Amino acid sequence: MIGIFDSGIGGMTVARAVEQLLPDHSILYLGDIARTPYGTKSAETIIDYSLRNTEFLLQKGSNLIVIACNTASSVATERLRQEFNVPIIEVVTPAVQAVLARSRTGRVGIIGTRATVRSNIYERSITALDPQFKVFSLACPLLVPLVEEGWINKRETKMILRRYLHPLKDKQIDTLVLGCTHYPLLTNLIQPRIGNRVNLVDSSIETAHYLQRFLADHPGIVRKNGDQPATRRYFVTDLTESAQQVAAKIFNRPLELELV
Amino acid sequence: MIGIFDSGIGGMTVARAVEQLLPDHSILYLGDIARTPYGTKSAETIIDYSLRNTEFLLQKGSNLIVIACNTASSVATERLRQEFNVPIIEVVTPAVQAVLARSRTGRVGIIGTRATVRSNIYERSITALDPQFKVFSLACPLLVPLVEEGWINKRETKMILRRYLHPLKDKQIDTLVLGCTHYPLLTNLIQPRIGNRVNLVDSSIETAHYLQRFLADHPGIVRKNGDQPATRRYFVTDLTESAQQVAAKIFNRPLELELV
Predict the structure, then answer these.
(1) Any idea which residues are catalytic in this one (chains A, B) (predicted)?
(2) Engineered SS bond to B178: which of A3, A104, B183, B210, CB 3.0-4.6 Å?
(3) pLDDT digits over A162-189, tens only?
């Protein structure tokens, strides 16, 4: 069973992509809505929460963990791999691989939460693989609350995006990483504001593809459900109306959220 | 010793007002930054966090608790009074008393978090005391992240405020309650947008005055420090750079935050 956790509901963009690519696999999701958001908090606190989330998913029978949160991926992956003896997939590596495969100029932008940008993980990972790359990172802390409020097509959201993206405009990037699993919901607003020729890398979709290849390379770690239909369960640490609304928007269907 | 807690740093507007009005009293503050914000979360989760915060402040020697958070005041006061045998002061009652004293038309607006507005506590408390009052409540969930980001004078914040306040404009209110301890930082933006004739009630200042009267009426519950200088300690459950910046802005001095 594939266990996926996130600070809240943003990671459901990863779960949705996994559902579509791997329809025969069972999924267990945990959204830590009671402590959301992670991106404004300290590394120590984020690691503590990530340990607890992973323990929950393992107790419920997961054989593999996907950290569907760029913030937790950035600061907690190493610690989770030390503590737990199952494969830990995170969202940064898949996005970094996509950047290296697709960028032609080697000039790349990263947008994410404050904690993700402060960790500098994208720049370190990209330049470790190719020192020629120039990486420009930018924290956009208000985008998570705007998405969680459902303000996806509001004029204020467009203005805030324009203000955030402005420092990237003259950097001549050809690739921009959506380094937060909430941001794919803003793709239609980000693309025209950063320029139509800039290639957007969606860490959610890249992670689902990465997971698909990983499972193909490591058969036996996570079993398909065979003749049984795949189960999907979505747990949350707090149950709120707006979480239910955003979840339904992400999956384009009503989703039953189960309170832990 | 006066114990004060909040979901994060907004409650420091209450602590600041208490420092100014009651300079001889020692203050212990706890900001639950690791779990902030409360206003988007469920009542059960907010009660759970409020119990833990109160326990911490009592263990550290508080003789009286101030809930410096409208959200926690709205949903957790009753439970804290059942559990703990010390006076529990909250921020709703002082604001309600100010409304009844100052409103001449009896048409009153309330702005607050989603949880505060959902609890309906202001409307219930005001109309219980005077059924003639008309109360119009409005959730403004993005104001807390905007304040915590320090976007206090940005154009986007002004636009979002205008959008939020719009439904109140034709209600002919003469009084507006800032029903969240973050909002006093936005007074200068709110006043012109709601109209200069509308009287703003700041729950932080009202609570400090209420506490002053309470202590005068109940001498002996909380002792003054006598010849000792009053101590002030500011604890947080997570330590972040932006929390330190906003805290310094609220107190107009650098503030030493202690990690719990």
Answers:
(1) 69 (proton donor/acceptor), 180 (proton donor/acceptor)
(2) B183
(3) 999 999 999 999 999 999 999 999 999 9
Residue closest to A69 by CA, chosen among A127, A24, A29, A126: A29
DSSP string over A126-145: HHHH-TT-EEEEEE-TTHHH
Contact A166/B at CB under 8 A: no
DSSP at A1: -
pLDDT means per 10 residues, chain B with 260 residues, are 95 96 95 94 96 98 96 96 98 97 97 94 97 97 90 94 95 97 94 96 96 94 79 95 89 93
Measure in Å the smallest separation between the Cα of B20 and chain A Cα atoms. Answer: 30
Contact in structure between A141 and A114 (CB atoms under 8 Å): yes
Q: For A92-203, CATH number?
A: 3.40.50.1860
Over 80: is that where the pLDDT of A32 sits? yes
Asked if the C-beta of A153 comes within 8 angstroms of chain B's C-beta atoms, the answer is no
CA atoms of A121 and A138, how far apart (whole Å) = 12
Domain with CATH 3.40.50.1860 in chain B: 2-90+205-259, 92-203
Average pLDDT over residues A116-143: 96
Q: Do A239 and B163 touch (CB under 8 A)?
A: no
A32-36 average pLDDT score: 95
Asked if residue A145 has a cis previous peptide bond (ω within 30° of 0), the answer is no
Exactly one of B14, B69, B72, B236 is catalytic; which is it?
Answer: B69
B152 touches chain A (CB under 8 A): no
What's the complex ipTM?
A: 0.87
pLDDT grade for A97, boundaries at 50, 70 and 90: very high
Residues in A closer than 8 angstroms to B155, CB to CB, are: 159
Residues A62-88: tens digit of each pLDDT:
999 999 999 999 999 999 999 999 999
